[in-house]
């Protein structure tokens, strides 16, 4: 299966989530930026509110590829339990956290303006991205969402490495991976158009989704 682009991928993913349609407890949370076009289509089919769930990795100073933890929408901070083994000075950790909090706040303001994030508590949160390779960002998002006491967490992606998809069954309540090719290699290989989603596209799709939700609420 080769997706034309992220919008089409969302159209293919959405029917696999139809059991969550027209449920007032359901919210769709997109991991920006690439997850937003996918999640837009999912939210439209499910008649569910759409929001972004911004996650920022906290890279280990000098070895940024290693995640000390992550911060996410809602003021949630999740730290890697292995961090103590590295004996990183507290001041260095605080510097990274402050920098990433600033970037997270910038992105949230850029994407939603003054609009507050959707409440996750006691809701069915469907976390959507354009694919899962290692799944580290999605895992950070799921962990952060869990801290906000949802009723249920669902991970949904158009394409994923099979082993990564299976691993999420022990982390969340439901996992929907539309396509798990073997060999997998990389998310972008399964899209004809995998060009970067722009901030302007994210803003436009969120605005359209919010307008649609306002019409449903009237």
Roughly what fraction of the amino acids lie in strands? 15-25%
Summed up, the domain count is: 1
Main CATH class: Alpha Beta
Q: Termini separation (Å)? A: 39 Å
* Average pLDDT number: 92
Shape: globular
User: How large is the count of helical segments?
Assistant: 6
Low-confidence stretches: none
Residue share in helices?
Answer: 25-40%
Oligomer: single chain
DSSP E strands, number: 8
CATH architecture verdict: 3-Layer(aba) Sandwich
- Read across the widest sheet, the strand sequence of neighbours is 2-1-6-7-8
Instruction: Spell out the helices and strands N to C.
Output: HEHEEEEHEHEHEH
The name of the CATH topology is Rossmann fold
Kindly provide the radius of gyration, computed on alpha-carbon positions and rounded to a whole number of angstroms.
17 Å
Structural class: alpha/beta
Major beta-sheet overview: 5 strands, parallel
Q: TL;DR?
A:
The chain has 218 residues and is α/β, with parallel strands linked by helices. The chain is built from six helices and eight strands.
Describe this structure in words.
- The structure is a single chain.
- By secondary structure, this protein is of the alpha/beta class.
- The chain has a single domain, classed as 3-Layer(aba) Sandwich (Rossmann fold).
- The protein has a 5-stranded parallel sheet, with helices on both faces. The chain has a 3-stranded antiparallel sheet with strand order 3-4-5.
- A hairpin with a 2-residue loop joins β3 and β4.
- α1 runs parallel beside α2 and α2 runs parallel beside α6.
- The longest helix is centred in the middle third of the chain and has 23 residues.
- The chain is globular.
């Amino acid at each position: 299966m080769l997706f034309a682009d992220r919008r089409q991928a969302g159209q293919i993913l959405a029917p696999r989530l139809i059991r969550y349609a027209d449920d007032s407890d359901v919210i769709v949370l997109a991991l920006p930026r690439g997850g937003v076009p996918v999640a837009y289509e999912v939210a439209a089919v499910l008649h569910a509110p759409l929001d972004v769930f911004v996650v920022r990795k906290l890279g280990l100073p000098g070895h940024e590829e290693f995640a000390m933890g992550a911060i996410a929408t809602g003021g949630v901070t999740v730290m890697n339990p292995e961090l103590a083994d590295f004996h990183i000075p507290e001041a260095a950790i605080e510097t990274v956290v402050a920098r990433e909090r600033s970037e997270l706040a910038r992105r949230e303001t850029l994407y939603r303006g003054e609009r507050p994030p959707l409440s996750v508590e006691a809701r069915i949160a469907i976390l959507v991205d354009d694919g899962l390779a290692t799944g580290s960002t999605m895992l950070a998002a799921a962990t952060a969402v869990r801290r906000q006491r949802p009723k249920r967490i669902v991970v949904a992606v158009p394409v994923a490495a099979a082993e990564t998809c299976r691993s999420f069954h022990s982390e969340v309540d439901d996992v929907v991976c539309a396509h798990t090719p073997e060999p997998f290699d990389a998310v972008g290989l399964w899209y004809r158009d995998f060009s970067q989603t722009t901030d302007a596209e994210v803003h436009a799709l969120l605005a359209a989704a919010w307008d649609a939700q306002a019409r449903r609420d009237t």
